[in-house]
From TrEMBL:
<dbReference type="InterPro" id="IPR029442">
    <property type="entry name" value="GyrI-like"/>
</dbReference>
<dbReference type="InterPro" id="IPR011256">
    <property type="entry name" value="Reg_factor_effector_dom_sf"/>
</dbReference>
<protein>
    <submittedName>
        <fullName>GyrI-like domain-containing protein</fullName>
    </submittedName>
</protein>
<dbReference type="Pfam" id="PF06445">
    <property type="entry name" value="GyrI-like"/>
</dbReference>
<feature type="domain" description="AraC effector-binding">
    <location>
        <begin position="5"/>
        <end position="162"/>
    </location>
</feature>
<dbReference type="InterPro" id="IPR010499">
    <property type="entry name" value="AraC_E-bd"/>
</dbReference>
Amino acid sequence: MNILDGPSVVRHPERHTAGIRLVTGFRGMFAVRDQLMKELYAWLDDRGISHGETFLRLHVVAMESDMEIEVGVLLDKPLDGDGRVTAGVLPAGDYATLRFIGNTRRGSGELLNWIRAGDRRMDVDENPAGDRFGARYEMYLTDPRTERMKTRWQIEIGIRLER
């Protein structure tokens, strides 16, 4: 993993999104992510909608059972969803962030360790059925359609901090 920036705290405004949510197991999450990306890009392309970076948002993290994930894109303005594609927002707030190239598991671990070491608190409801995050995302700053090698992707992980 090659760290590009951070870890640090960044204040983000509310950001409009379009995405597809799904419940899946941890082991199949990345294959599902890739399939949902293709479906979302096709939906946007069919409607001529331009967009910013693609993200994977983890709504509910339950490593031993099912997780609720969302594959989405950032938009300049809100839009109406249709079918499986829904409109949404990444909420405003202070986020612990880390930008890097490489392995998302290592990047996530690095950021979580930094958060805990600094005695920061995440916006999360921790419970046995799965941790529900106010906002936890992996933003793909490299377009997955043009760079197929995931080890070369530039990624930003963000976890909203408690207010």
